[in-house]
Design a protein that fits this description.
By secondary structure, the chain is of the alpha/beta class. It folds into two domains: about 140 residues, 3-Layer(aba) Sandwich (Rossmann fold), CATH 3.40.50; about 190 residues, Dihydrodipicolinate Reductase, domain 2 (2-Layer Sandwich), CATH 3.30.360. It has ten helices and 15 strands. The strands form two sheets. It has a nine-stranded mixed sheet with strand order 14-13-12-11-7-10-9-8-15. Helix 1 packs across helix 9, helix 5 runs antiparallel to helix 10 and helix 8 crosses helix 10. The longest helix is centred in the last third of the chain and has 22 residues. The model has no long low-confidence stretch (mean pLDDT about 95).
């Protein structure tokens, strides 16, 4: 089997804990380059994981004949430039979410990738959760009937204590909107994947409650959001996002809680990330039952065992698409759709009013 050689741009905590191990776990992929601001650190990581190239220059990764595809895991403000450059060079790209800091940059990235007809993917890791994929299949089959109410939350406790190690996340110029890009984009994409519907209007309230390092001249990023949403089907929803919600310390994700509930006129499903490989299914006049999802994740209480397997599934699908030169979901356009909701939620919070979400598919070629 010929392995797809992946060049990593950005070597932060998530890249080291998930992306690099996931590449190593994937028979069809290999780490070919490591790029980051500190050459010594890049060389150390490259040496540890058998990558032949280490550099501080993303253009060197993109131009290298040893690199077939690029994985961008740099801070949010460093996504657009290398993604567009890779597309122009004909290299496939897997980019971390949020796709960009601004909607304009996300559009430029998507247009470049589609124009070049390269495999492109947004790293919405939680799409690979078996329970979420089962929920999508049940809705697509019509088992739940017409969906009319949706609830979702992604809550973490990690910013209750100041994190001084990643100061860029607290700088709006580099991170963008904060909670919406960090956690919201995952929820927006999951709801789009599961329901097959588009959010068309939002009413959001953003807050900044937790401790943050001082960034001279910069307003703090948001760490809490409460949102009402309306879908193009007429369904209504409520979404809660927070970095400041004390968790239940339940394995395998002790410091966070991600859940989705979908209610239709024939039944309902409840998806909880802690029960990642099964769903609670409810039908009228019947007791709720737990249904196992196909392709279950490992039976482990270790957060990183589960997360790395999700990452492996993501890398495997990306590598297969690169090898076959085919498109793959979730692509950049999926990331763009999520970015449009981020943009609308920010505008809604500023205006303290309902705001329409831009339909970014209107001009799709």
């Amino acid at each position: 089997m010929t392995k797809v050689r992946i060049g990593l741009i950005g070597y932060g905590s998530w890249a080291q804990r998930v992306h690099i191990p996931a590449i190593a776990m994937t028979p069809s992929a290999a780490l070919a380059a490591v790029c980051g601001p500190d050459l010594t650190r890049a060389r150390d990581l490259a040496s540890q994981h058998g990558a032949p190239l280490a550099t501080t220059d993303p253009t060197e990764v993109i131009a290298s004949p040893q690199v077939d595809a690029v994985l961008i895991a740099a801070p949010n403000d460093a996504h657009a430039k290398p993604a567009i450059a890779a597309a122009r060079a004909g290299k496939a790209v897997l980019c971390e979410k949020p796709l960009a800091v601004t909607l304009a940059d996300a559009k430029a990235m998507t247009e470049a990738a589609e124009r070049a007809e390269i495999p492109n993917m947004t790293a919405f890791t939680w799409r690979n959760v078996p329970a979420a994929r089962l929920a999508r299949a049940m809705i697509a089959s019509g088992e739940l009937g017409r969906i009319f109410h949706i609830g979702a939350h992604f809550l973490q406790e990690r910013w209750l204590i100041l994190d001084p190690k990643r100061p860029w996340r607290f700088d709006r110029r580099r991170a963008g909107s904060g909670i919406l890009g960090d956690l919201g984009t995952h929820v927006f994409d999951l709801l789009a994947m599961i329901t097959g519907r588009r959010v068309v209007r939002v009413c959001a309230v953003m807050s900044s409650f937790g401790p943050k390092p001082d960034v001279p001249g910069q307003e703090p990023v948001t760490d809490d959001s409460q949102m009402l949403v309306e879908f193009d089907s007429g369904a209504r929803g409520a979404i809660r996002l927070s970095r400041l919600a004390t968790a239940a310390q339940r394995p395998p994700f002790p410091s966070m809680h991600l859940g989705i509930e979908l209610y239709g006129d024939r039944g309902a499903v409840v998806c909880d990330l802690h029960s990642h490989s099964s769903l609670e299914v409810r039908h009228l006049d019947k007791a709720a039952q737990r249904v196992q999802a196909p392709d279950a994740l490992p039976d482990s209480e270790d957060e990183w065992v589960i997360t790395r397997e999700l990452g492996r599934r993501q890398i495997e699908r990306f590598a297969q698409a690169v090898g076959a030169r085919t498109m793959v979901e979730p692509d950049f356009r999926a990331g763009l759709r999520a970015q449009a909701i981020v943009d609308a939620a920010d505008r809604s919070s500023d205006a303290r009013a309902w705001v329409d979400v831009e339909d970014v598919d209107q001009d799709k070629a």
